[in-house]
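Translate structure to sequence.
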């Protein structure tokens, strides 16, 4: 009886475009939190989680390649930002409008559980910018490298001397 109801529910969800994860699915989910410290203030203002999406196809491909080779996984520490607020996509490979300001190097840590990887970086602005996108890369070079996730949020104006702290968390969802 229960199995019949479960199958009907699954068919109903699929009919309307919703796919339930299979029992043996492994997945990744990213989230970005930001804090801002204005040049004339002494503390950060916490904006909380500003974006939650899935990781990019190029990062998923990188993971598979890393498992097949000796590629390093601990190189994803470079935080970049841009001024676009165009919708993000799993097919993104770079930020839409990355600024020419230097990427910030993040500190990598385990998140709230052993299934969450986190990297935190603070960027001090050398020039005014309206930040609307963020990504973590494996390269310090502007518009280069493999991107983990492009996070988009409402544009936030920043002035020279202001600081923005990025906390990116990658959750690995086990198939258990």
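Result:
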């Amino acid at each position: 009886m229960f199995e019949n109801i479960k199958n009907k529910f699954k068919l109903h969800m699929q009919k309307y475009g919703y796919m339930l994860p299979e029992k043996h699915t492994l997945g990744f989910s990213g989230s970005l939190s930001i804090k801002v410290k204005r040049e004339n203030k002494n503390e950060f203002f916490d904006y909380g989680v500003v974006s939650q999406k899935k990781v990019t196809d190029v990062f998923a491909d990188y993971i598979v390649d890393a498992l097949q080779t000796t590629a390093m996984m601990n190189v994803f520490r470079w935080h970049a930002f841009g001024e676009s607020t165009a919708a993000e996509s799993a097919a993104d490979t770079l930020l839409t409008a990355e600024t020419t300001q230097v990427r910030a190097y993040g500190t990598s840590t385990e998140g709230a559980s052993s299934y969450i990887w986190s990297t935190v970086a603070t960027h001090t602005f050398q020039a005014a910018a309206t930040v609307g996108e963020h990504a973590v890369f494996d390269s310090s070079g502007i518009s280069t490298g493999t991107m983990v996730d492009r996070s988009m949020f409402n544009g936030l104006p920043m002035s020279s001397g202001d600081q923005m702290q990025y906390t990116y968390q990658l959750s690995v969802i086990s198939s258990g």
